[in-house]
């Protein structure tokens, strides 16, 4: 059979529509030149909206509040802002075009207690200049490989600031800047329906190899970060340690993971730390790939970019981060305390992920709402295998302006069917994140894990 150019063109277009692309071309130099002009350095629309309810991006937070000192919990630069309006089960229809399916379901499920306090929009996201510079370079050279399950020729910055498809958008979240080597001391809670809970406390470390100064694509050798998590409370779980080497192309090379178990006093491979296996000490309320709102290989889903949309989403939640707030103030029955949350109107990229035919995952569909200014996922709607909305995830973010970077201060995963939720990232009563840890690659090996477990 003779293959004509027309046949080749038809085949290429068909595969593209079905999402089976081997590579995705980078944008042109003319398109990339928009970054820093009508688009922000991260690819967001710099201008505000026509109604004036979303302001123009003016660089975000570039200077910490005068009273802030390194090591402090981050003070709220918008503490004087007043609530513009409150969305409840009674008035939700007025705002339904700007609410996620998850938020509408929360209002319906908890009509007497859940509400959404909407504040003035503050486009606070900001990053070091080197991240902007690297993003500009990536725009014309980064490509998708392995049917979108890997990225080539991107380093340090966002790979696809002008995304053409859902794969590119989710990779921007996976490779966003969160610091260089970061330590955090956080708590997790899974309250019962009556509000009782036991705190699980973690020491987390992230060595962000992909975005560190001087990093090169070749030098990564397909590993984008090291992650270590140690459980320090309660006593029955204390001493358990998880170590992960996260890979860029997980089809080519799946992530490597190991655990140290205090009872066995042994380091073991942990291939199940991925996809829809239960998260650490989560009481079955989140999957492994829900940590950090989404992590790991994207290969189990078809990813569709639905476009950019104005939505009411969690943003600038400094109250949830405040040292003046106690964990018990946040952890109320059925959902966290809505008087401590802040929502704003922002433009987000909406990405719909549907599980591939013949592939297994407990979530048949997931809809992601990704902040245009930072590529941080702010909300996710997750559906069960029957197609019913099951779990609602929210990423409550602040600008860690000493870095600067926009990242979650708390993640909440609400199970609508169980009437429970999981809150991870509580840091009000612990020491502040350390963005200046000193570590080497030798600190993130199975041998180092064994030595730490035996101490």
List keywords for this structure.
455 residues, alpha+beta, outer membrane lipoprotein receptor (LolB), chain A, 13-stranded antiparallel beta sheet, two-stranded antiparallel sheet, 8 helices, 17 strands, 14% helix, disordered N terminus
* Count of discrete structural domains: 1
Distance between the termini: 68 Å
Under CATH, the topology can be stated as outer membrane lipoprotein receptor (LolB), chain A
**Residues in helices, as a percent range:** 10-25%
Low-pLDDT windows of residues: 1-22
Side-by-side strand order of the widest sheet: 10-9-8-7-6-5-17-16-15-14-13-12-11
> What's the CATH class label?
Mainly Beta
Question: Mean of the pLDDT scores?
Answer: 94
* CATH architecture tag: Clam
Strand content: 25-35%
Could you please describe the fold and organization of this structure?
The chain is α+β, with helices and mostly antiparallel strands and 455 residues long. It has a single domain (85-454), classed as Lipoprotein localisation LolA/LolB/LppX (outer membrane lipoprotein receptor (LolB), chain A, Clam), CATH 2.50.20.10. Helices cover 14% and strands 28% of the residues. The strands form 3 sheets. It has a 13-stranded antiparallel β-sheet, sandwiched between helices. The chain has a two-stranded antiparallel sheet with strand order 1-2. It has a two-stranded antiparallel sheet with strand order 3-4. Mean pLDDT is 94; it is low at 1-22.
In brief, what are we looking at here?
With 455 residues, the chain is α+β, with helices and mostly antiparallel strands. The chain contains eight helices and 17 strands. It is globular and about 60 Å long.
